[in-house]
């Protein structure tokens, strides 16, 4: 896929700039003649790239010097994803023939920032926190380039990028009233756990005695970037004071999305239970652009239960049972939040929630083709949802996770209840969890 930057005039008109003041950009790949008639193709897949957030001025300053904060660092060609974004018909028969677009994530706020004036640093440099304007400018540029004539659009995002789709979906639907528009969230359903439910890590490599709960960090991010106008403009009904981080996350915000939406996620998502920057797989680190590996701040759930996996020494039967029980508690809590969001009940919506310990495996070929719940693969579940009409019952397109077993067996190793999890490079995925012990 080749890089395209928006024009200077549009950037100035909307105030759409990356953190460092550079123009936003995207990577584009036209449909192949083999997969579709390129000249008449009006099917588009737009994917918002992810890569965590910057929570304070120091974070954003550091981010502004790299790939997640400056288009000057964007490669000329880039496309790290597979699954529903793959152009191979063998892997992705439903969407392979679409125009494919990857929007560069260079604002650090999930495309929600609306800070009116740049943030001035002590060095004299300034940071532009204009995520919402960046996203609107990119989409307007695409519409001028041909997407205005689209007949069908899959509007998607991964991890932090998925939150951006939530707040732009209604706006894009209004821009393309004649198109079939659906929304796909991949590993973007983040929980809002109160600080007391996410204990501070006290032991383990890199653990700090003092580290901010993720809910607090996200509230700081919203305040710094000024995400409240974006939340309110999307019509999010939320009781939280200031319409900040709690309203930003899908349990609250997804209820405001009008287009049919499909959620792909793990109920024990490895990022949510992992220390930021601790993903040891290099390919995974590059995949979602994890930043500031030295920050040593844990993520959402803050529990690392090594005893839930077989082959771990020095784990008693009681410790294993405790680890599995706590993990199943997380699964239950996650599923409850998905229900609250309306993803499993509103007509046209749907969800595929696994118990596989991973992050963004839905945009890998292995996860897309092999994850299975109730004998239906993720690929088939997504295809059925895409082909359904907007009034289709969500129950027809909802697959929920099993809970881990307390006793492992040859048919269910690693206390895992879903065998398909083990087919997707599970060893590498397990290593995403941080070796962190929150204590008792």
TrEMBL record:
Region ranges (Disordered): 391-418
UniProt superkingdom: Eukaryota
A GO molecular function held by the record: hydrolase activity
Bias (Polar residues): 405-418
InterPro entries given in the database record: PAE/NOTUM
Name this protein carries in UniProt: Pectin acetylesterase
